[in-house]
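Internal tracking record. Fields below are filled automatically when a chain is submitted to the structure queue. Please do not edit lines marked as system-generated. If the sequence contains nonstandard residues, flag them in the REMARKS field before resubmitting.
Queue: standard
Priority: normal
Entity type: single polypeptide chain
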Amino acid sequence: MKTRVDRLAEQEGQLQRAFRAHIKSLCNERVVVLYYLGIVLLPLLGILDCVNAPAHLLHSFLILRLVAAVILLTILLVAYPSIGKQHPALLGIIGPPIVGGSVSLMTVPMGGYESPYYAGLNLVILGVTLVMPFSLRESALTCGLVYATYFVPNLFGNSITRPDLFLNNNFFILG
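SYSTEM-GENERATED OUTPUT FOLLOWS
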């Protein structure tokens, strides 16, 4: 005969399993939305390149945007039916660094940390955190990967030539 504590523990286990199944089904739905957002918005926001980027970079920026969109579409068509339905969070973690990486590569010739393209990374991070029902760990990992796509190429492709930007923005408090 089960005690009240045993019944409560069993109910709690059932609720936890149901919650995990619900989150997985949400991830299944929303990873598709996330990828479609990237596939559509990445090339569409290329219109802003005509305003922000020098003419000699327009072609390479368009190629970067289209390659990233094609990679997302390929993952959605190939990996989603097989791997993605079983592990949707994995695809949710993989997609944003692809988009972020393409945007990050655009920041390098545009001045790195001074580039207006940096705002695109904020949109990627905002999009993934609003769309995906991620845990704190999954969100932190995804955002860290997106930021790494910015940090690594700019670390090697640019140098900080204006330290006054950091000093005047209260990053350092001078006595």
